[in-house]
Give the backbone structure.
Amino acid sequence: FDVYGAPILGNDDQLKGVVLVFHDITELKKLEQARKDFVANVSHELKTPVTSLKGFTETLLEGAMEDPELREKFISIIAKESERLESLIHDLLELSKIEGSQFILNMDEVNLETLIEDVFLMLGEKAALKNITFHKKFIGNGTIYADSQRMKQILINLINNAVMYTPEQGEVTVRVREQTETVILEVQDTGIGISKKEIPRIFERFYRVDRARSRNSGGTGLGLAIVKHLIEAHKAKMSVESEVGKGTTFRISFYKQLLNEKREE
Ligand code: ADP
């Protein structure tokens, strides 16, 4: 608590009483701590690829360059680490944009089917490398009121995770189901799953269930934090169902009310 005190004086300047104001600063302290943790995490996350870039370039310069096998190996590590650094900076900038006061959504009628097809095309090669098949299932026409670019970003992050955390020969199914008041979008995989205990934490920035696995697959640990913000900005609701070893389903409900209001305008 922060405490402020002030005397209450009578007409004769005699002390009549004291006002004490107790200000609960627990929330402020928590925010301050969260900010500090975030800065520490960002620094650590940036430092890891930079240290490795520096190490491998130095080793190359000190002679490893002469050995064609080592040269090939080190240069491909350098390429991979630079890519990681690039995605990390990209995601950090995205997150700060989305959280910024200037952030506005460009809302319009959006057809989910076209967006899903675009994202399947984009991630097709990555899925094919693991023999993962994509499926798309529709009940209703799947038109929602949303920012199409941001909606695509949500789909990319969720479908990319589904591919990343699903072993070879798995399946990723995107379902769209129109109901009376909502349009439900589901991204389901047959992957490694997430335990009940971890589910509430996966939306935190930089939280990963398995750090090494996320790093190796090029994850930044920011994808779901970005998704969470974007879903909130769309006034939609998200839930997660998962079973370890069986798979995970991310479910988003969009309110049709918003689309109806737009059409009545
Ligand atoms: P990352 O870049 O590490 O994937 P995200 O914010 O996208 O970061 O996800 C946070 C963590 O949630 C991941 O590291 C992973 O442990 C877990 N996760 C996300 N999506 C899935 C999924 N479809 N199946 C299993 N685990 C997942």
